[in-house]
Write a structure and sequence with these properties.
The complex is a heterodimer of chains A (about 325) and B (about 250). Chain A is mainly alpha-helical. Chain A contains 15 helices and 2 strands. A two-stranded antiparallel ribbon of chain A has the order 1-2. In chain A, strand 1 and strand 2 form a beta hairpin. In chain A, helix 5 runs parallel beside helix 7 and helix 13 packs parallel to helix 15. Chain A is globular and about 70 Å long. Chain B is of the alpha/beta class and about 250 residues long. Chain B is globular and about 65 Å long. Chain B has a single domain, classed as 3-Layer(aba) Sandwich (Rossmann fold). Classes of the chains: A mainly alpha (about 325), B alpha/beta (about 250).
Chain lengths: ~325, ~250
C-alpha cells in the first residue's frame, strides 16, 4: 500500500496520546509524587493539613525555580554547582542594600545583576577558555559564598530598612492562598517550557547537548548558547535568593548551602540527562515536587533529618542508573 | 560553466606539505570521485573548499568567479554544502530539526518569533520524498539506520541553492545494504544538476557513481580521468604508487 507524502509528514512516533503519555519519564515521576502524597495522607494526619501543604509547596518552589535553570544547563551537557552560593550572594546583596536604607527597587536589580555576573563568569570560562563546567562552578561555589560573607562581615541581616514589609510580603506572603514563590515558579516554568519548545535558542540548547560538534559545524553560536544557559541558571538562583530573604525574614551566610545537590537531583529525577540533550521544564518542577514530598515525609514520619542527604544522593544515583539502563536498551 | 575550479592550490602546515599545486575542475551535474590513501591530502582539500582554512598558494573559483573563504559560512553562502563523515547530526532531535539545524524557519506569533514546526515538517518531508528516502520528518535521528541518517545529512544540503556538495566518506560507516541507498541519493543530487565531490576509500562506490576520478598521492594530483576509461586496478596502482602516471 502506498503511503502518501502527507501521511509520512504527519506520521507520529506514538500511535495514541495515551501511549505517548505512558512513554514519558515525567509522567511516571508525577505519578510517584502523587502516590507519595496519597500514602502520606493515609499514613499521617499531619500531611494533608493546610499549614503543611502551604509549607511544602513553598519549599518546593525554591528548589523548582533553580531546577529550571539547572535543567537548561544540563541539557547543554553542563552542570552548575554554584547555584546555592549564588542564592546567598543574591540574598545578601538584597539584605545589605536594604539594611543600608536602599529601596527594594534598587536592591532587586543589584541582586540580579550580581547573580548574572557570576553566571556570565561561569559561561565565559566554560565557552571560551574550555574549563570543564564542574571545575569552574566548583570555584564560583566557593567564591560567591565568600563574597556574601565579606559583604555582610558574616553577620545576620534582619532589618531591611524602609521597604522591610514589602520584601517580607514578596517572599513570604501569599495571594489567593498560594505562596508567592509558587507564582514565580509557575511563571518561570511556563516561560522556560515555551522557550525550550518554540524558540530558536531553545532548539540550539538541545542541539549543543545532543552533539556539540554538529552544532558548531551547522553554524549554531555554541559559545553564546553556553553563556546564556549559565546566566539563566544564575538568574533563577538570584530570584530564589531574593524570595528566600523575604520568606525567612533574615539572611545568614549559610543560606542555600548544599542546595545545588537538591536542585541537580530535582532536574535529574525530572528527566534531564546528565549526558546532555534531554530535559523538560515540567520535569524539573515535578522532580522538585517529588524531592520535597519525600523530604517532608521523612520529617512527618519522625525519621531523623540526618537521613535526608542519603535519600537525595541515592535519588541522583538511581536516576542516572535508569538513564544508563535505558541507553543500553536502545543501543541493542 | 565550471562549478568549482582549483588552480595551483598548495597547503603547508609548518614543514609538512599537505597539498602541492593541485588544479581541478568540476562541472554542474558531475560526480567526481576523490581518492587517495590516508594522508594523501583529501581532507585538506575538502577543508580548503569548505572554508575551514585558506590555501597557502593558489586560487579557488566558484562559477568562474574567484573567491576566498575565511570561514565555513562563506563557503556555504557561495553554494558549497558539506556532508561530513560523522554527518554532524544531533541524535536527540528529529529528522526535520536536523535538516533545519542552524537555519530554523520562524514565524511570527504576535510580537515574537517562534519555530515554524509545520513548514519545517512539510519541507523536510518533501526533501526526503525527493531523495526517495523513507525517512520520516518526526522520527528521532537516534532511531535511524545509517542510510536514513545520510538522507538527513543530504537533505540538509538541498535546503539552500547548493551548487556543489562535498561528501566525506559517506559510505565508510554503514552496512553494505545501505551503501546502495546512499549511492542513489548521490545520483538524485546529480539529476538536480548539482555537482558532487565524493571523497571515498571504497573503489566500488566510486566506480558505481562517479563520472570522473581524481587521485591524490602525497599531496599531488596523479590522475584525473573519466571512470569509463579507467579501472579499479589502475586506480589502486595510482593510489599506492605502483603506477606513477595515468
Amino acid at each position: 500500500m502506498a503511503i502518501t507524502l502527507e501521511e509520512t509528514i504527519s506520521r507520529q512516533v506514538h500511535a495514541t496520546p495515551l501511549s505517548w503519555i505512558l512513554s514519558r519519564h515525567t509522567f511516571w515521576v508525577f505519578m510517584a509524587a502523587v502516590a507519595a502524597c496519597i500514602a502520606l495522607t493515609l499514613a499521617t494526619d499531619t500531611f494533608a493539613t493546610e499549614r503543611n501543604i502551604f509549607n511544602v509547596t513553598r519549599n518546593f518552589a525554591f528548589v523548582g525555580i533553580i531546577a529550571l535553570g539547572m535543567t537548561a544547563v544540563i541539557i547543554t551537557g553542563g552542570i552548575d554547582l554554584s547555584v546555592g552560593s549564588v542564592v546567598v550572594l543574591s540574598a545578601m546583596i538584597t539584605g545589605m542594600t536594604m539594611a543600608g536604607g536602599g529601596s527594594i527597587w534598587l536592591a532587586i536589580p543589584l541582586a540580579l545583576a550580581g547573580s548574572l555576573a557570576v553566571g556570565l563568569f561561569n559561561g565565559l570560562m566554560i565557552a571560551y577558555i574550555g574549563v570543564p563546567p564542574f571545575v569552574v562552578t566548583l570555584g564560583t561555589l566557593s567564591v560567591a559564598r565568600s563574597l556574601a560573607m565579606v559583604l555582610s562581615d558574616n553577620k545576620m541581616v534582619y532589618q531591611f530598612g524602609p521597604d522591610h514589609e514589602l520584601l517580607l510580603a514578596l517572599g513570604g506572603g501569599s495571594t489567593f492562598g498560594i505562596p508567592h514563590p509558587v507564582f514565580a515558579l509557575a511563571i518561570l516554568g511556563i516561560l522556560t517550557g515555551l522557550a525550550f519548545r518554540w524558540t530558536r535558542l531553545g532548539r540550539h540548547i538541545f542541539a549543543v547537548g545532543g552533539n556539540e560538534h554538529a552544532a558548531t559545524l551547522t553554524g549554531i553560536p555554541v559559545k553564546r548558547v553556553k553563556i546564556l544557559v549559565y546566566m539563566f541558571a544564575a538568574l533563577t538562583a538570584g530570584i530564589t535568593g531574593i524570595l528566600e530573604v523575604g520568606w525567612l525574614g533574615g539572611v545568614t551566610t549559610n543560606l542555600g548551602q548544599g542546595m545545588e545537590l537538591n536542585v541537580i537531583a530535582a532536574a535529574v529525577i525530572g528527566g534531564a540527562n546528565l549526558a546532555g540533550g534531554v530535559g523538560t521544564a515540567f520535569g524539573a518542577i515535578v522532580g522538585a515536587a517529588l524531592i520535597e514530598v519525600i523530604r517532608n515525609s521523612l520529617i512527618l514520619l519522625g525519621i531523623s533529618t540526618f537521613w535526608q542527604g542519603t535519600f537525595v544522593g541515592s535519588f541522583i544515583i538511581i536516576a542516572v542508573l535508569f538513564d544508563r539502563l535505558r541507553a543500553s536498551r536502545t543501543n541493542e | 560553466m565550471t562549478v568549482l575550479e582549483l588552480q595551483g592550490v598548495s597547503k603547508s602546515f609548518g614543514a609538512i606539505q599537505a597539498l602541492s599545486d593541485v588544479s581541478l575542475k568540476i562541472e554542474p551535474g558531475e560526480v567526481v570521485g576523490l581518492m587517495g590513501d590516508n594522508g594523501a591530502g583529501k581532507s585538506t582539500l575538502v577543508k580548503i573548499v569548505a572554508g575551514n582554512f585558506p590555501p597557502t598558494k593558489g586560487t579557488l573559483s566558484i562559477a568562474d568567479r574567484q573567491v576566498s573563504f575565511h570561514r565555513p559560512s562563506d563557503a556555504r553562502a557561495a553554494g558549497i554544502e558539506i556532508v561530513y563523515q560523522e554527518l554532524a547530526l544531533c541524535d536527540n532531535l528529529t529528522a526535520a530539526a536536523n535538516v533545519f539545524l542552524g537555519r530554523e524557519l520562524m514565524r511570527s506569533f504576535g510580537p515574537i518569533r517562534i519555530l515554524d514546526y509545520k513548514t519545517m515538517y512539510e519541507r523536510a518531508g518533501k526533501l526526503f520524498a525527493e531523495l526517495k528516502s523513507e525517512t520520516r520528518p518526526r522520527d528521532l535521528v537516534r532511531r535511524m539506520s545509517g542510510g536514513q541518517r545520510q538522507a538527513v545529512a543530504i537533505a540538509r544540503t538541498r535546503l539552500s541553492d547548493a551548487r556543489i556538495v562535498l561528501m566525506d566518506e559517506p559510505t565508510a560507516a554503514i552496512s553494505i545494504r545501505q551503501v546502495e541507498e546512499v549511492l542513489s541519493l548521490i545520483r538524485r543530487l546529480r539529476d538536480h544538476g548539482i555537482a558532487v565531490a565524493l571523497v571515498s576509500h571504497r573503489m566500488p562506490d566510486v566506480f558505481a557513481v562517479a563520472d570522473r576520478v581524481v587521485v591524490l598521492r602525497r599531496g599531488e594530483k596523479v590522475a584525473d580521468k573519466p571512470t569509463a576509461k579507467s579501472s579499479p586496478e589502475e586506480i589502486t596502482g595510482l593510489i599506492t604508487g605502483a603506477i606513477t602516471t595515468a
